[in-house]
Amino acid sequence: MKADLLSFQHHSAQQIRDLLALAADFKANPAKYSQALAGKSIVGLFEKPSLRTRVSFDVGIHKLGGHFVYLDCQDGQLSGRESLKDIGANLACWADGIIARVFKHDTLIELSQGAKVPVVNALCDLYHPCQALADYLTLTEAFPNKSQFKLAYVGDGNNVTHSLMIMGAILGCEVRVITPVGYEASDELIQLAQKLAADNGGKIVISTSMDDLKGVDAVYADTWISMGDNTKFSDIEQTFMPYQLSSAVMADAGAEFVLHCQPAHREQEITSELMDSKHSLLLQQAENRMHAQNAILIELMK
User: What does the pLDDT look like over 175-234, one tens digit per residue?
Assistant: First the structure.
């Protein structure tokens, strides 16, 4: 029976730790895995453009001995000419896996229903699982003597927020989500994360106050306006600027490191000074996208 990676909500803590260990081993010993996808072709379906996602998958699959086929949806949507189930079924005739970066999670579900090969969520409106695995890999490297962390996410509640909450809850971490009023994460996924945290010894804190940053190990930011959202910065500036991350905010919180999935908007959600400081793990995160994704592909196709 084929397996997909659409989110991590059904994974156990041990399964996630095994993926993190595999990603770390690939990072340390890439030659060991140079034929892991030999003879295999992976299709990348992109409704939304990308820098890190596209390049990290393309280069990573090449390092595993596989072949990456990039399909750019020129009209921005996969559906239209034919059903998503038919697209998935046809791609599975030729490819060994499908990576999809899409607007709606339902798109992934329909693709998976048609495809007899694994489907990997490279981003949708609800989740960004590959990013979360890379982020927790980065945290394990930054805090080698800790198995659990106190992580605060600051900004707009979105797909990254959801995946950080879910994975952190399963790993037994404390994840604090701090957003402006009206920009909270999904109630349904907050409840899911809180249940997962209760089952695994973690903790989910939902807040609108920057005071709740105090005592965390690391702070995480993301863009305040997601790709495809036509909101103007001037329309949200007064609401969001109190949530900007800076060195002063980090010092007040006592946090050691800052993370950001990028693209980052300097002097909006994060200051340039903090991005370029010794506290920044941004480039380490970006590199780890490839290692985390390769671990997922190795596991799904072994």
Answer: 999 999 999 999 999 999 999 999 999 999 999 999 999 999 999 999 999 867 788 999
Contact predicate 173/150, CB 8 Å: yes
Active site residue 289: yes
Range of the structural domain that residue 59 is part of: 13-128+289-301
pLDDT at 283 over 60: yes
Q: State the Cα–Cα distance between residues 34 and 65, nearest whole angstrom.
A: 5
Identify whether the C-beta of residue 291 lies closer than 8 Å to the C-beta of residue 141.
Answer: no
Q: Is 62 a catalytic residue?
A: no
Quick one: 110 and 220 in the same domain?
no
From the list 176, 279, 289, 291, the catalytic residue is: 289
In a domain, 112, yes or no: yes
Q: Which of 135, 261, 291, 293 is catalytic?
A: 261
Asked if residue 163 and residue 115 are part of one domain, the reply reads no
Residue among 11, 52, 54, 128 flagged as catalytic:
128
Catalytic residue, chosen from 4, 52, 96, 131, is 131
Half-sphere exposure of 7 (CA within 13 A, CB side): 24
Residue 128 annotated in active site: yes
Note whether 270 and 264 are within 8 A (CB).
yes
81 included as an active-site residue: no
What percent of the chain is modeled with pLDDT above 90?
92
**Domains contained in the chain, number:** 2
Residue at 8 is within a domain: no
Average pLDDT over all residues of the chain: 96
